[in-house]
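Because discrete structure vocabularies remain unfamiliar, we turn briefly to a single example record, giving the amino acid sequence and backbone structure tokens:
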Amino acid sequence: MLQTQTVTHAGRPLTWAGFCTGPQVLSAEQLDALATRLLGTGLAGAEAAARTELTPYPAARGTVPAIVLGSATTLKKCYEADLAHLVEGTPPDDFATYNEARAVHLAAPGDLVVGRTEPWRQAVAGSAAEPVEVAELDHYYLTHALLVLAARHPADAPAPPLARLLRQLREAPGTIVRLFALDPEARVLLLWLKRTAGLDRLRVDANGQQVAERWNRKTTLYPTVEEAAELPPPAAAADPCDLLAAESRLTPFTREFGTLLPRLPGYSVTRAGADEAGMRRRVHGAARLLRERYGLPLGCFKPAEALTGSRIRTGVPLDDAGALDALARQAMETEEDYVLEAHTDYLRHSVEGYEFILAPSTHVVAGELAEGGTVQITRGSVWEGSVYVDEETCGRFGIDPEVFRGVRAGMAGLLDAFEGGGRGLGFVKGGVDFAIARIGGRFGDTPVVGMQDLNLSSNGAEYVRAFLGQAREAHGGDRRIYAATKVVRPLPGTDLRRLKAAAEQDAPGRWTRVLTSVPGCWGMVGVAGPCPRQAAEDVLALEQRLHTEGLLRTSLRQAPEPCGA
């Protein structure tokens, strides 16, 4: 059942429509009170307790029993991203619903999968996992719904879904909990489950707190405007790469670990301690440094913690005072940290019906550098799918194998920084997006390669890798199989059953599956075969066919729909 309610945002009433869950979000004060009631300590105490009672545990799918808890997360401001769609008059993603539904694909046979909505029910019905249904739809975040349920019932007579989870933990203490991110509310919930079940420790398929909260943001890769300004002005003939390295030594990551990561010119614009005039100074200061040091005319303004590339402002004229003032106002209104970095002119590679930007991603899976990598399907700056490639096949997308090796080396450096030297910060999963691009200015036409985004949590590539594993298993373990997944936008009424009936038409050399469908909002389809380029072309052709048949709202091969359509 879809929700229709009214929410107030920035003093403006908005219709909460098209969502499977309600708009209630617990405040920090409410979460603190729930933590005190359930644990005897507030959020600060829960954070300290989690360091010793919750253990980041790398485990591949199917190697240990698991509880899959596909809650959206406050760390990525999922609720705010959906509110932004309502403000703009565009269809929401309903991240809470689609994350719960798509998480089913991370479960192995016999795993417990927690969820609430009809798209989730349809997804789990087609799997070999055991559903644990939560009959609470008022709260946007699944973790919030579960915390409220835990507080409503005595610990010796918990609500049925919590009772099932507790029984699993008691009967199989080695069970791992898979979740999107170990945010503050998840910490409280898991600590309550662990203590109520009587366990010494609870294993969690999520990154340690430092990785998840301190480093999982774009500002990790950029010095602040104030720090960078302290460097002496470069000589006119200085190599811009040397200047970039000098600025990189000022970034939070390099200060902490001593490791230089490949990055683009840019600066953190922090909200802390800034009034509107101070924020304008920081934004203008970042623009001035990009112009004066690197000769760059355009910038890109990004929230430090955002979802799938949303709310990014590209092509910002760095000498336009009005445009820069508008960015400062945006930062004040959303009360977030941002980065202003070089605008990238990505190298591109065309396949039939689509032009890829060269923005490959590499990943850590189960605590190790994962094989291969992905190239991204995007709509503007927003991620909409992944194609699995390796060193042998990256050239089919215009990526030089040596560059591909360098991208993987950058990810290996990040992993070693978190886990090497006895640090053991619990980096068990995550991905990094790279740019292969021209940025102009003093770099001229020479392409640069740099990290642009840290996704140190569950990420979209998990689904192409899970789908790839299923496809290879269906083909007798053939590792010459490659896969592509694509986000699609189903029309209202296009549920999982209907989309499966229309899409899952296998052909020689092609294996097609529908992973998820949230009618009116979000879905995912996948195609696998012996060539990644062909898989990419086939998944895009599938999207176009389903759009033509009236099942999808949009297609990448279709002109963008007008706002609000």
User: Anything to note?
Assistant: Residues 158 and 516 are 31 Å apart (CA to CA). The radius of gyration is 23 Å. DSSP finds 18 helices and 24 strands in the chain.
